[in-house]
Amino acid sequence: MSEDDRARNRFIVINVVRITGMGLVLLALAIHYRRVDLPEEAAWALAAIGLIEFFAVPHFLARLWRTPER
Question: What is the pLDDT of residue 69?
Fold first, then answer.
């Protein structure tokens, strides 16, 4: 696998993680506004997980995959 392919795949993974985090936050909002019939605690839990997934996980992955300095 070339470096370009590896970089492209990592870029895609980071963006998929962000999109799924946003989806969890939107699901939490739907639960909060009673569009989805789940307990309010589920909304808070999903919102927290979604925000962590949206902000922290891509940063962690980028640091993990950073090109080492030579």
Answer: 65
Tokens coding 24? 């969890």
CA distances from 26 to 31, 36, 64, 68 (A): 9, 11, 28, 36
Domain ranges of the chain: 3-64
Closest by CA position to 54, among listed 24, 11, 9 = 24
Q: Are 60 and 18 in contact (CB under 8 A)?
A: no
- DSSP letters along 32-45, please? HTTSS-S-HHHHHH
Q: What is the structure's pLDDT at 70? A: 60
Q: Is pLDDT above 90 for 67?
A: no
